[in-house]
Amino acid sequence: MNKIHYLIFSTLFFIFGCSNHSEDDLTIPLTSNTTKYIQNIKPIIDNNCVACHGTTPSAGAQTSLVTYNQVKLSVLNNGLIDRISRAQGASGMMPYQGTRLPQSSIDLIIDWNTDGLLE
């Protein structure tokens, strides 16, 4: 086969050999970057909150933050995000009399709320 025949054959094969029967063939599945309680939030709460907000709250804490539902309700009803977002030393800042959480941890909790508070 000479070069011209090869070029024509290759061009025709490319044009007619490739087909698309649905848009699904053209999309790349997205990986989930959804923030979830067990994977992302529980370690933050366990390491920074449970000392006072344990099964039996202590040191003046009013609520327990041991379970998914307790943390979820605290975000929805008790201003957890507001309390952890306050400036270091501000009245009502959590952790109480501690160091403000790193902004990356606060952002994860905000993302968890935005993503639908998934377990």
Cα distance, first to last residue? 63 Å
Shape: elongated
- SS elements, strand count: 0
Q: Percentage of helical residues? A: 40-55%
Taking all Cα atoms into account, the compactness measure Rg is 27 Å
The unreliable regions are: 22-30
Quickly count the helices: 5
Order of helices and strands: HHHHH
Look at the structure and give the mean pLDDT: 85
Structural class: mainly alpha
Proportion of strand residues: under 5%
Largest β sheet strand count, sense and barrel closure? none
If you had to describe this structure to a student in words, what would you say it looks like?
The chain has about 120 residues and is mainly alpha-helical. The chain has a domain at about 35-115. About 45% of the residues lie in helices and about 0% in strands. The protein is built from 5 helices and no strands. Helix 2 (about 35-50) packs across helix 5 (about 105-115). Residues about 20-30 have low confidence and may be disordered.
Short description:
It contains 5 helices and no strands. The protein has 119 residues and is mostly helical.
